[in-house]
Amino acid sequence: xxLNNNISSLNIFREYNKNxxxxxxxxxxxxxGEKIIKASDGPNEMSQSERMRIQIRGLQMAQxxxxxxxxxxQTADGALSSLNSIxxxxxxxxxxxxxxxxxxxDQKVIxxxxxxxxxxxxxxxxxxxxxxxxxxxxxxxxGEAVVKKSMQIxxxxxxxxxxxxxxxxxxxxxxxMIDSNDEKKIDSKKTLQYLKDNLDIKDADFVDKxxxxxxxxxxxxxxxxxxxxxxxxxxxxxxxxxxxxEIATQRSESRIRDVDIAEEMIEFTKTGILIESGNAMMxxxxxxxxxxxxxxxxxxxx
Length: 302
Hints:
2 domains; structural molecule activity; Flagellin; Flagellin_C_sub2; bacterial flagellum
């Protein structure tokens, strides 16, 4: 029995402080929902969790990019559908112009409507855009040809794809010819613009020449629309995959970072009981010096 150092009380106080810290830690975890709040709580787990969080944010942004790509393809598809409808009407008018019952006035009206339809075609091809990006006008602000757009469709380097753009203006679509290098090239005398400006509806071969141009332009539109449809399907598939990857990564990050509330409540309750027990024991242990004092008093009375 000692007066200067109450060893029992000191031991109880040491355990009391330890339980108090554990109780405070449990309370902090329960209130935040995380078992790793600062790096010292788990350096390795913290680094793993942070890398996963960065990956998750990248996947979320990639999904937004892909959704933008889907919307862009839908915009392009709507415009291409309109262009094809216009060419269908132009073809009807060309065939109609071949009727021998047409008067010169009828032919003039037919040619006027053909020209108006081609003007409407040019307006759509020139002004179709998505978020300020021209889809069928391949000239940028510097007058240079833009033949593709790069789309980031993943969270990592290299997860991108190029979307080829096509110039569908009236002077760029029509029948092709083989040049000196054995490559296909648009024949300037077989374009929609040439049909509008140069072909005379009164010529005997007007129908044949016009149909060749319109059919070639229509085939180009259908081909481009088919390619953009395939790209749209790829975007839809990629969007689903990115969503699956994000959920899987979030699940893994949650196992590392998030606290099990039930388990932590058990720890919080346990340490709370131990703290109350420590308080009670310190009250008892602090009576030891008083017991020593009573012994001394008894000695003095004798």
